[in-house]
Fold this sequence. Notes:
Structural class: mainly alpha
CATH superfamily of the domain at 66-218: Ribosomal protein S7/S5
Order of helices and strands: HHHHEEHHH
CATH architecture of the domain at 66-218: Orthogonal Bundle
Strand order of the largest sheet: 1-2
Distance between the termini: 108 Å
CATH class of the domain at 66-218: Mainly Alpha
CATH topology of the domain at 66-218: Ribosomal Protein S7
Strand content: 5-15%
Amino acid sequence: MRRKVEKVKDVKAAPVAKETRARTQIPVKLFGRWEPSAEVKDPGLKSYVNTDPTLIPRNAGRLRNPFHKSKAHIAERLALHIIVPGHSGKKHKITSGPMGGSFYNALKTVEKAFEIIEKKEGKNPVEILVRAIESAAPREEIITYQMGSIVAREAVVTAPQRRVDKTLRLLCQGTYRRSFRSRMKAAQALAEEIMASYHGKESFAIKERERIEREAAGAR
C-alpha cells in the first residue's frame, strides 16, 4: 500500500538585510605608531629601501638570500646592523659583541631612537632615516688589485645595494662610537647619528662617505 506523500510548501526565507556600514580598514603602522609615508627620492636607491606598511619588521629568515634583503623593511635592516655592525679599523672592541645577537633588544633600540627623533624633529622618523641614508650613502669607492709586482687602485661606482648596506653599517658604527665609554644610551646615540646625517652635519657616516669619495677621486 503506497503512502501518500504530502507536498511541503516551499517556505521562502526572510530576505537578509544588507549591511549598510562600510567596512573600515585598520591602517598598518610601524610599531603601531608611524605611518609608511616615507618616499625615497634618490632614484638609485628607490628599489633597495623598503618602507612598506608593517607592524613589526621581522621576516624570520624568509629573506635570507642576499639578493632578497632589499625586500626587508629598512628598520629591520638597521636593527640587524646594530647586532653586527662590523669592524671599523682595528678598534674591534667598540663594535664587536655588545648586543650578542639579541634581535628584539636591537629592535627596541630602534623604536626608542625613533621616539627621540619624532620628539625633536616633529616629523615621521622613517622619513628622517630614509633622508639620512640618501645623504650618507657613498656613490663611489676604490678597489685594489695586483698588477705584476705593484698594487693598483681604481675608482668604481658603488652598487645601490652596497650603498644602503654600507650606510647602515656606518650609522651603527657611529652609534657605538658615541655611546662607548659614555653615559649616553644606544637609542640616544642612534637618534643623534641619524639626525646629524639627515641635516648633513659632522656625523661619522658623513665623514666616512667624504673620505671614501675623496680617495676614489684621487684614484681616477
